Amino acid sequence: VSDAWRGAKLGQQLMAKTLESCGRHWPDKPLYLGAQAHLQPFYARFGFIPVTDVYDEDGIPHRGMAREVHQA
Q1: Under 8 Å between Cβ of 49 and 66
Q2: What's the pLDDT at 72?
Q3: Helices in the chain by DSSP H: which ranges?
Q4: Looking at residue 56, which CATH number applies to its domain?
Q5: Which of 25, 36, 47, 57 would give a disulfide with 71, using CB separation of 3.0 to 4.6 Å?
Q6: What whole-number distance in Å separates Cα of residue 49 and Cα of residue 72?
Q7: Which residue range(s) make up the domain with 50?
């Protein structure tokens, strides 16, 4: 989310819609994402848990995170 729009909760809205769409299209598939490490708490709110150690991606610490099927 652009710096100008931070704090407007657009990231939360975007994640909620994304998870809703994934649930409709791939209801039996777990989800995986590569998150910037400092955003781990944000993704944890949506049921994602860390599944990798921290790794470097373009000079930014990242961590693989996954969400199991049928989570609220």
Answers
A1: yes
A2: 53
A3: 10-25, 40-44
A4: 3.40.630.30
A5: 47
A6: 14
A7: 3-67
